[in-house]
Design goal:
54 residues
Length: 54
């Protein structure tokens, strides 16, 4: 019985840990889709936003 409860808790903990460590990727586009952009967000040591705009 303990194993049945423990396995979902471990999976949930692993999923939350992995999702918190991933950097977000923001996507944008115009309504007529003439341009699209993706921005990968990263934090610098100085607490300033950094990223790559593609």
């Amino acid at each position: 019985m303990k194993k049945i409860i423990l396995v979902p808790i471990v999976i949930l903990f692993a999923w939350i840990s992995i999702s918190l460590l991933q950097t977000p990727v923001l996507y944008g586009q115009t309504e007529d889709q003439t341009w699209t952009a993706s921005y990968t967000v990263a934090n610098s040591i100085k607490n300033q936003w950094e990223g790559d705009l593609k």
